[in-house]
């Protein structure tokens, strides 16, 4: 909430306001070696 002209107003995030702030690795969807099923 912010105070403007003596009144409290609710600040709401806008769709797409974090665009460009989050980056993912190219291999994000690659299988993890730690979770491979051991068949021995």
Characterization of this structure:
By secondary structure, the chain is mostly beta strands. The chain contains no helices and two strands. It has a two-stranded antiparallel sheet. A hairpin with a 2-residue loop joins strand 1 and strand 2. The model has no long low-confidence stretch (mean pLDDT 79).
Tell the overall outline.
Answer: elongated
**What value does the Rg take, in angstroms?**
22 Å
Q: Taking all residues together, what is the mean pLDDT? A: 79
Low-confidence stretches: none
E-strand count: 2
Helix-and-strand structural type: mainly beta
Q: In this structure, how is the largest beta sheet organized?
A: 2 strands, antiparallel
How many helical elements? Answer: 0
Side-by-side strand order of the widest sheet:
1-2
Helix content: under 10%
Quaternary: single chain
SSE run: EE
Q: N- to C-terminal separation?
A: 59 Å
Q: Strand fraction band?
A: 15-25%
């Amino acid at each position: 909430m912010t105070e403007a002209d003596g009144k409290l107003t609710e600040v709401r995030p806008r769709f797409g306001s974090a665009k460009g702030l989050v980056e993912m690795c190219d291999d994000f969807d690659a299988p993890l070696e730690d979770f491979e099923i051991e068949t021995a």
